[in-house]
Amino acid sequence: MSKRPGPLLLAETFGDLVAASLALRLRSFEAIVSGRDAPANLPQVAPHDAVMLERALKAWNRRLPWRTLCFEQGLAAERWLRRRGLASRLHYGAAGRGEGPVAHVWVTSGTVPVVGCEQAGEFVELAQFPHAEAPQSREN
């Protein structure tokens, strides 16, 4: 089993990171994620593929002349998953730290963590995209 992402994955994630970076500079995060529908019953990514995707995104983060933080990496990962017809959910959270609130984005595919999930426990989840189904309320 390979421990490094292959050249095709690296090339593809480069394009996804460039697209995510441009989108975040030209549009608001809200505009980028609004209106997304959650297709039903999509398969989740294979755990090995999720690890390789995360490694490819982090490899570019160390090499690109601009920063690709959790927002860019999350959007790039979600784009990569959607292109393959795989389940993807972008989670948005916040935490209070030092001088003020800090935001974080992480991506899952079904039950498989994809990117940014190591720090997710430090944040209160505020939203998911596509939006998760609201729990059914019980009326008496």
Report on the structure:
The chain has 140 residues and is of the alpha+beta class. It has one domain. The protein is built from four helices and four strands; from the N terminus they run ααααββββ. The chain has a four-stranded antiparallel sheet. The longest helix is centred in the N-terminal third of the chain and has 20 residues, at 7-26. The termini are far apart.
Q: What structural keywords apply?
A:
single chain, 140 residues, alpha+beta, four-stranded antiparallel sheet, 4 helices, 4 strands, globular, disordered C terminus
Count of discrete domains = 1
- SSE order, one letter for each helix or strand: HHHHEEEE
Average pLDDT, to the nearest integer?
87
Strand order of the largest sheet: 3-2-1-4
How many individual helices? Answer: 4
Number of beta-strand segments = 4
Proportion in helices: 40-55%
Please mark out the parts with pLDDT under 50 across 5 or more consecutive residues, or reply none: 134-140
Q: Which class of secondary structure composition applies to the elements?
A: alpha+beta
Shape: globular
Strand content: 15-25%
| Intertermini distance | 55 Å
User: Sheet bearing the most strands, described?
Assistant: 4 strands, antiparallel
Radius of gyration from CA coordinates: 16 Å
